[in-house]
Amino acid sequence: MTESVLSWIIGAALIFAFTVPYLIKWNRKHKQTKAKLDEAIRIGANKPLMQHPIIDLSRCIGCGICTRVCPEGEVLGLVGGKAVLINGSKCVGHEVCKESCPVGGIEVGLGDISSREDIPTLGPNLESNLENVFIIGEMGGLALIRNAVNQGARVANSIRERLDGRKPEHPIVVIGAGPAGLACAISLIEMDLPVVWLDQSEPGGTVLQYPRRKLVMVQPIDLPGYGMMNKKEYSKEELLEIWEQIFQKYKPDFQGGHQLQAMEKHEDGYVIQTSQARIETEYVVLALGRRGTPRKLGVPGEEMSKVAYKLLDAESYQLQNILVVGGGDSAIEAAVGLGQQIGNTVTLSYRKAAFTRIKTRNQEQLEKAIKNGWVNPLFESTVKSIAIDHVTIDHQGEDIKLINDYIFIFAGGVPPFGLMESLGIEFGTSTIS
Ligand SMILES: Cc1cc2nc3c(=O)[nH]c(=O)nc-3n(C[C@H](O)[C@H](O)[C@H](O)COP(=O)(O)OP(=O)(O)OC[C@H]3O[C@@H](n4cnc5c(N)ncnc54)[C@H](O)[C@@H]3O)c2cc1C
Questions:
Q1: FRET pair for 417, CA 20 to 30 Å: which of 14, 120, 262, 331?
Q2: Tally of CA atoms within 13 A in the half-sphere of 423 that contains its CB
Q3: What is the DSSP letter of 173?
Q4: Which residues in 62-83 are b (16+ Cβ under 10 Å) and which e?
Q5: What distance in angstroms lies between residue 152's CA and the mean position of ligand 1's atoms?
Q6: Which domains are delineated in the chain?
């Protein structure tokens, strides 16, 4: 064998040794990501709810940087060597993917919203099609605390300009106590305008739903009532502490437990109907977010304090008899999380005969939890009534009684869009900024 043939063989062997493992790895990764995309499509998690990365495929070079940088996890993935939106519903618009793309191939926006039935029609000053009814924050389609705060402050300014030095006859009604409602209500108070501020729940909005100690990424925000928030990251607890400080300082007329139910046109303004009161006003600011209201079971005893619609801290429940209701990912995650705590007896009640729309990972975790006796599933069962120390369940036509300390219900949320439509709000085209 000549020397040159030998060097060709060595060269080819080296290329083979490096490229084949790479191609195998690439192919495996591609298949995994494709499977994740298929699963996201199956459970509907691929569809974005708010602003999201819009990829220019003609620019994408498939480097994969954008798939690794998102603080919310796997929003993007590489399929066929191009970036693809996998879990669009997880995107909250941080824009880190856009900033890290070396070829400028990502924009973050809402895309074509002309046919979206979940984005209200808004004018440039965030007024809806109803005069003096404004929509701010995530409800309008844009996520992020910074956007919510800026929009809240902006609408407060618009209302002040409209009033032109006049005091309104009735207090301005702000509904929603997430960052958007907070910024608007506090700005109005700083302008010495009368405000009634309502929420179905406590102040905090979606921030309250974050997991314990979650790090929240923010770009600099001028938060009304507080000032500049300049740190890049705040823990959930730090954010709620800031809320608390603002409450201490301004003592706003905030009323929790008011769920907005209806709104009618009335003379010069509107009459707001909440679960607790009828309120007249000229100006309405809706800061309802997009996560809606937890769906209730509507059974006797559901109002008891042992019943909850979210689980933030599984570790704080130990040695308890717990019922988890639901068949989605949140129910499974809660049941598995609670089932692994010391001394808990966890029953998972679901009205259907099998779980069909859950992530494969959750399916596997649940199977393991059932096998280990951490979770007892009750298929084809519905809760009939809740008492202080027990719960009555119809299980395949037979009533059973379970000793019970806590109930977590994950029956989904009622999105706010139906309510908005019933108020007369139009959807479809928008000029949100
Ligand atoms: C897991 C997760 C992580 C996130 N991380 C970040 C992050 O790192 N950085 C960031 O900037 N943003 C982040 N966000 C997004 C951010 O939390 C939201 O964009 C922001 O909270 C929107 O504020 P909002 O005031 O519009 O609505 P929300 O905060 O959703 O508040 C809406 C309020 O309206 C109330 N409400 C709803 N319906 C009714 C009704 N019918 N009657 C009365 N009250 C009602 C609700 O109870 C709630 O208090 C994250 C979101 C999630 C889900």
A1: 331
A2: 28
A3: E
A4: ebbebbebbeeeebbbbbeeeb
A5: 13
A6: 3-109 (3.30.70.20), 133-292+416-423 (3.50.50.60), 307-413 (3.50.50.60)
pLDDT tens-digit profile, the chain (433 residues): 677 888 888 888 888 888 888 778 777 877 888 888 887 887 777 888 888 999 999 999 999 999 999 988 889 999 888 999 998 888 888 999 999 999 999 999 887 777 677 889 999 899 999 999 999 999 998 999 999 999 999 999 999 999 999 999 999 999 999 999 999 999 999 999 999 999 998 899 999 878 667 788 888 999 999 999 999 899 989 999 999 999 999 999 999 999 999 999 988 899 999 999 999 999 999 999 988 888 899 999 999 989 999 898 899 999 999 999 999 988 999 999 999 999 999 999 999 998 877 888 889 999 999 999 999 999 999 999 999 999 999 999 999 999 999 999 999 888 888 889 999 999 876 555 5
Residues across the chain: 433
> Who lines ligand 1 at CB under 6 A?
92, 137-139, 143-146, 148, 175-181, 198-201, 205-207, 210, 216-218, 258-260, 287-289, 291, 293, 416, 419
DSSP state of 139: G
Q: Please name the residue whose Cα sits nearest to atom 6 of ligand 1.
A: 216
How many angstroms separate the CA atoms of 366 and 333, rounded? 8
Ligand 1 atom with the smallest distance to the CA of 211 is 1
The residues pairing with 281 across neighbouring beta strands, listed in sequence order, are 270
- State the distance from the centre of ligand 1 to the C-alpha of 138, rounded, in angstroms: 7
The residue contributing the CA closest to ligand 1 atom 39 is: 288
Q: How many CB atoms lie within 10 A of CB 46?
A: 19
Q: Tell me the β-bridge partners of 79.
A: 82
Q: What residue owns the CA closest to ligand 1's atom 21?
A: 206
Token pair for residue 53? 């990365």
Span from the CA of 197 to the centroid of ligand 1 (angstroms): 16
